Amino acid sequence: MKARATVAAAPDRPAGGAGVPGGGSGAGDGDDGETRSAGRTRAGGGPRRERDGITWRQRLRRDRTLILMTMPAIALLLIFNYIPLLGNIVAFQDYDVYDLGITGSPFVGFDNFTRIFEDYRFWEVLVNTLVIFVTQLVLFFPIPIAIALLLNTIMSTRVRAWVQAVVYLPHFFSWVLVVTVFQQMFGGAGLVAQWLREHGHEGFDLMTDPGFFKFLVSAQAVWKDAGWGVIVFLAALAAVNTDLYEAAAVDGAGRWRRMWHVTLPALRPVIALLLVLRVGSALNLDFEQILLQRDQVGAGASEILDTYIWWTGIKTGDFGYAAAAGIFKGLFSVAMVLGANKVAHMLGEQGVYSKK
Fold first, then answer.
1. Which residues contact 158 (CB under 8 A, 6 or more apart)?
2. How far lies 48's CA from each of 51, 58, 111, 272, in Å?
3. Nearest partner of 230 among 311, 313, 168, judged by Cα
4. Which residues lie across from 107 on neighbouring strands?
5. 211 FRET partner, CA 20 to 30 A, in 81, 85, 245, 275?
6. With contact defined as beta carbons under 8 Å apart, do 300 and 231 qualify?
7. Helix axes 120-140, 142-152, angle to 10 degrees
8. Backbone torsions φ then ψ of 239, nearest 5 degrees
C-alpha cells in the first residue's frame, strides 16, 4: 500500500524508481532526499551539531549540573596549582622577599640556573635521589602487584575484605607515626635490639645506619602505601573475564600458568601506566619522611633534592635558587615521563597517552 501511494502521488515518475541505477523503492528515494536536505541545511549555515546530534549549547544545558559540581575542584586546582606557577619568575630574579618583592627585584636572567649547574653538591644530591628512587622502584613497586594476586586467589569475600582493610590501613598514618613505629622496632633501644641483647647477641640500630638508609625508607614506604596501591590492581583483576580462567583450566593449565597467561596480561596496561607515572615522580620522594630522619643518618646519605632545596634555598632565604631548582626538577620529571612513555609504546602498551 505504501508503494502504491508513493506511485500515485508521483505519476510522472517511472515505476520501480527509474532513473536510479539498479532501481529502488520510493521509501529509499525519500531517505536519500532527507539526507540531501540535511546536508543542505548544514551547508547553508544551520546550527552546528556534534556527533551525537546535539549542539554544544544543548550539551552545556544538559550537563550544567555536572559542570557546577566540578567548579569547586577546578577553582581549587587553579588557585593552588596553576596560579602559583606565576611565582616561578623569581627563578630569573635576584629575589628579595623582604624589601623589593617580585615587582622590585632585579632580573638576573639564567644566573640562578648557572649556579645550579656549577654546584657539585647539587649533582651529588641528584644522584642520591635517583639511587633512593631506583631502590624503592625495585623493592616497592612489585609488592602491590603480588599482594593483589594473592588476594585474588582468596575465595572468601569476607576474608579478602578483612585482609585488604588491614593491609591498606597504614596508608592513613602520618609519616611521624610511621617513623616512630620503626624507631621503636629497629632503633638502638627498639624491641628487636633489646630482644637480641637479652639472648646474648649484640644489638643494632638500623635507624642511624647511613648505608642502610635507602632500604629503610623503602621498607617504610612498603609498610605505609603498598596496601593502598593494591586497590588499583584489584580493580583491574575484577574486569578480567572469568571465562578465560575456565577455558585455561579446561585446556589443562594449572594455577601458575593461568596467572602467567591470563592474569598478568590483563594487568600489563595498568602496570605500564603506573610505572610511567612512577618514573615521572623520580625526583618527588616523600619530603616529610626524609626530613624526619635526615639528622639521624646525616645529610650525605639522606639528602634528596627536595630537602636540599629547602635547606639551601628556602631556609637561607635564597628563593631564586630554590625556584630555579624547582623548575629544573619539573623539566627533568617531564622528560622522564616522555621517555618512559616512549618505552611503553615500544613494548606495545598505551602508557599515559596513546601513540598517534
1. none
2. 10, 11, 52, 39
3. 168
4. 93
5. 275
6. no
7. 10
8. -85, -5
**HEC string for 32-82:** HHHHHHHHHHHHCCCCCCCCCCCCHHHHHHHCHHHHHHHHHHHHHHHHHHH
Residue 217 to residue 135: CA distance in whole angstroms = 9
Helix (H, G, I), strand (E, B) or coil at 186: helix
**pLDDT in single tens digits along all 356 residues of the chain:** 344 444 444 444 444 444 444 444 444 444 444 444 444 444 444 555 555 678 888 888 888 999 999 999 999 999 998 998 888 899 998 888 888 888 888 898 899 999 998 988 899 999 999 999 999 999 898 999 988 888 888 777 888 888 888 888 999 999 999 999 999 998 888 888 888 888 888 878 888 888 899 999 999 999 998 888 888 888 888 888 888 888 888 888 888 888 888 888 888 888 888 888 888 888 888 889 999 998 888 888 889 999 998 888 878 888 889 899 989 998 998 898 888 888 888 877 777 777 66
- Cα(159)–Cα(100) distance, integer angstroms: 62
Q: Are the beta carbons of 304 and 285 closer than 8 angstroms? A: yes
For residues 333 and 341, the answer to whether their CB atoms sit within 8 Å is no
CA distance 86 to 330: 14
Sole residue written with cell 639472648: 199
DSSP H helical ranges for the chain = 2-9, 26-43, 56-62, 64-77, 101-104, 111-118, 120-140, 142-152, 157-168, 175-186, 191-198, 213-238, 242-250, 255-258, 264-280, 287-297, 299-302, 305-309, 319-346
Cα–Cα distance between 152 and 233 in angstroms, integer? Answer: 10
Q: Which of 356, 341, 164 is nearest to 269 (CA)?
A: 341
Please compute Rg for the chain using Cα positions: 32
- Contact in structure between 93 and 105 (CB atoms under 8 Å): yes
